[in-house]
Design brief:
By secondary structure, the protein is mainly β. It contains no helices and 8 strands. It has a domain of about 60 residues.
Length: about 100
């Protein structure tokens, strides 16, 4: 169960945004599904993109006492580019658009 009673609106839907970090530097808040990462935010070699889900008062969303976070490590010069990824709440099913 997600705990954050401050974020429940009258119909019980959580509201908030993601915080996006590139190589440990906060890039921006994310309110949608897509994000453009500027090339100058990346460095040669291994890069990390990390995200956390947050309420509009910047509290972390929590499930079973764990913050909802994810991280991916990648190197654009490698094939495949993804070296490692982590999610505190792995998807059980992949949804396709």
């Amino acid at each position: 169960m997600i705990k954050n009673s401050n974020d429940l609106n009258s119909v019980g839907i959580l509201q908030g945004h993601a915080h996006v970090f590139i190589n440990a530097q906060k890039l921006q808040r994310l309110y949608g599904t897509d994000l453009h990462i500027p090339a100058d935010s990346l460095k040669q070699g291994v890069n990390q993109v990390a995200t956390s889900l947050n309420s509009h008062v910047h509290e972390n969303w929590i499930v079973d006492e764990h913050s909802i976070v994810s991280s991916v490590f990648f190197d654009l010069s490698k094939d495949p580019i993804i070296l490692h990824n982590f999610s505190s709440q792995p998807l059980q099913e992949m949804h396709h658009h």
